[in-house]
Amino acid sequence: MIHADLLHLAPDLLRWHLPRVETGRLRPGLTVSLAVYGPRLHLVARTAPGWADADQRITLALWDGEVAGVHPHPRPHRRFRFDLHRHLWDVRFAAELRDRSGADAWPGDGTGATHRWRAEAEILRRAEGRPGDPVLVRLNRHECPEVLPVEGPPSSRGRDGRGLLPREALLLPDAATWVPPDLELLRAGLIDPGQLHPLVADALAPGHARAATPGETAGPRYVDCRGQRHRIGLAGGVLSALDHDPAELRREEILVAFGGTPLPCLRAIEDATHRPESLTDIRARLDHGDLPGALRAVEALLGPHAALRDGPLRDELARVEQRHQTYELYRSGLAGPGPTKKPRRRKVTR
Questions:
Q1: Confidence class of residue 214 from pLDDT cuts 50, 70 and 90?
Q2: What DSSP assignment string belongs to 196-262?
Q3: Is position 289 within any domain?
Q4: Domain count, the chain
Q5: Which residues does 245 contact at the CB level (< 8 Å), separation at least 6?
Q6: In the beta sheet, which residues pair with residue 42?
Q7: What is the per-residue pLDDT across 240-283, written as a single tens digit (0 to 9) for each?
Q8: Which of 6, 63, 243, 332 is in Cβ range 3.0-4.6 Å of 230 for a Cys bridge?
Q9: What angle do CA 204, 208, 212 make, to 5 degrees?
């Protein structure tokens, strides 16, 4: 059974649906149950703690109740669980997203999937073997949430006297609490189905036309240079001034070495190498784990044979290398538990 689940697990679909923080990055230090085999054995997906994150990697493991290891939260999270939502990671169930999200019945007046809460609560009760127990819903994403029952008056809070959610209470999974953002974006016309994961698009917008993936082109850029419009572009795999002959460029480089003002074309190449306008995009790709895409963007900008000089671009790539080293230390258990959080000061009111 585990072998079949691993065979049908779609890592890109899992990544698409995993919980994220406000920046759009994967929620760090999380253990998500994907499937349950018996009373204690879980197939889980884990994200690294924030201090050891590299390329937004996801690891798979079998959890049998032991808490050994360096992960800060090795136990499956009861709020973020996918074992009741196989359509979020298993290709055999991907088409169920439309029904499980209530796409055909969603009134479109809020992000809460209130129209699905009762049905999802029954799924949770059956899975836990607690048919008569109340199910609570976490209404916000803060540390001290407002929690309401799926059924019953709003005054029947599901928290104890200290304002905490009881550990034994049934909590509706986050995936069942909210309308998928993909559905919201589609209904608002803010996204095209072709921009979604293909399996998500097939479920939420069946019959849509698949959009062609645009290729990355790197045509010449134009620079106002001494009263003329000159081109800079790739030549021999390196970003070069295309409208200056090699002898002129050598003379200009010598003048610059002695403190002279560089040609506008050379200055544009220098800026692209040290402070590229697309650095924000490159940094975003690196932060979200798209190292190949970031390297393609660098090559399209500077050429595949360009030597990186000191500057923000080189610093960003060095930062990624350091993150990879930290991640490998974390994975091998040699990094220890990582940096400890400073205790929060409690605000005293008079």
A1: very low
A2: S-HHHHHHHSTTPPPPPPPPP----EEEEETTEEEEEEEETTEEEETTS-HHHHHHHHHHHHTTPPP
A3: yes
A4: 2
A5: none
A6: 36, 63
A7: 888 888 888 888 888 888 888 888 888 888 777 766 666 677 77
A8: 243
A9: 120
306 is a domain residue: yes
The two tokens of residue 161 are: 């006297």
Single out the residue in 42, 74, 92 at which a domain terminates: 92
Of 92, 113, 143, the residue at which a domain comes to its end is 92
The answer to the question of residue 46 being in a domain is yes
Report yes or no on 233 lying in a domain.
yes
**Three-state secondary-structure class, residue 169:** coil
Q: Which of 190, 172, 171, 174 is closest to 182 using CA atoms?
A: 190
What does the alpha-carbon distance between residue 178 and residue 100 come to, in Å, rounded to a whole number?
11
**Domain carrying residue 11:** 1-92
pLDDT 10s digits, 51-103? 888 778 899 999 998 876 788 899 999 999 999 999 999 999 999 999 999 99
